Amino acid sequence: MGPFLLSSLVVLAAVIALGTCGSGTPPAPGEADQTALVDADLTQLVVDFKDGTTKALFDALEVGWGIDLEFNSVEGVRSGITLARVEPSRLEALLRLVRADPNVEAAEPLFSYRASFTPNDPQFGRQWNLEMARMREAWDLTRGAGVIVAVIDTGIAYEDHGEFRLVPDLKGAKFAPGYDFVNDDEHANDDHGHGTHVAGTIAQRTHNGEGVAGVAFEATLMPLKVLDANGTGSSADIADAIRWAADHGAKVLNLSLGGGGRSEVLEAAVDYARKKGAVVVCAAGNGGRGVVEYPAAYPGAVAVSAVAPDGKLASYSSWGKEVDLVVPGGDIRR
Q1: Exposed, middle or buried by CB within 10 Å (0-12, 13-18, 19+), for 131?
Q2: 83/18 Cα distance (integer angstroms)
Q3: Disulfide engineering: 252 pairs with which of 59, 149, 258, 311, CB 3.0-4.6 Å?
């Protein structure tokens, strides 16, 4: 994948992100701000064992810890990410105990993350954003063919399955097998809408006389559902999905989601994907403040902020030292 293709895909993924992802140095574990505490579920403990740790091994360890661990998802066999319900009063002591074990890479409460804001204006982003991103020139060089882009979000309306239907704008688009980490099945359908919007911005059918254009319309989409019908999801599911994407050939991972809690488990997943040659593109946040959210703020993530049609920072977009790119995202207030 040439450098222009890479930058084109980052821009297109960032256009959807409507926010940012970063690469600065985050605070050390335990230095979470008040926002991070709000995003933590103190009744659930995430333990990230070394890759390849067997269930037999952690079954033996959990006896001494007094908890019941299970793999978070099907990816757990490879990722080593497990989950257990705990009494909040025991959490601090358990963290000290579990982190001391040499088989454990990280242990922490379960954090929650949310889908980034998407304007509902039907004309939003149809013309000026593509011109500002110079997509006409990009399309002369590449249209994304041969690249798998993982959309780690609320799922995609990519198939007719049960109550779900393929949306017209994605009819004819190419899809790689995905996974639903919320419901633990192979049908990553969208019950919210956010992920489908993201997928359409990336690769909806183009030059077909209908609707609007996708920025890399010859790319292959990989639907990975980590956010539920309310647009929220857990650090464990997102981490497993990042690893799953990297293990299954995705070279660009788009995460238009974020939260205030720093998760070591999620940070390790971003690092894992980067070492496998994937680009991890994240939304910086939609708080309109100088704080880049996670996972955008992790080293190795490409943090993206948004500008309005006048080239100025969009009113909702977060900013900070971790931001790598600022791209057309729109601003309905201007």
Answers
A1: exposed
A2: 31
A3: 149
Contact 328, 17 (CB under 8 A): no
For residue 247, report the phi and psi dihedrals to the nearest 5 degrees: -75, -15
Q: Which has the minimum average pLDDT: 42-46, 80-84, 139-143, 197-201?
A: 139-143
Mark out the alpha helices in 217-275 (DSSP H runs).
235-247, 264-275
Q: Reduced to 3 states, what is the DSSP secondary structure of residue 16? A: helix
> For the chain, where are the E strands, in sequence order?
40-49, 70-71, 81-85, 104-115, 148-153, 174-175, 179-180, 220-225, 232-234, 252-255, 257-258, 279-283, 301-307, 325-328
Cis, peptide link before residue 295, omega less than 30° from 0: yes
With a CB cutoff of 8 Å and minimum separation 6, the contacts of 71 are 55, 77, 81, 82, 83
Provide the residue ranges of all domains of the chain, joining segments of one domain with +.
Answer: 3-26+114-328, 40-111
Total number of residues shown for the chain: 334
**Structure confidence at residue 96 (pLDDT):** 96
The single-letter code of the amino acid at 109 is: P
Residue 55 has pLDDT above 60, yes or no: yes
CB 301 within 8 A of CB 280: yes
CATH number of 3-26+114-328: 3.40.50.200
pLDDT recorded at residue 316: 87
How many DSSP H helices and E strands does the chain contain? 10, 14
Q: Are 58 and 47 in contact (CB under 8 A)?
A: yes
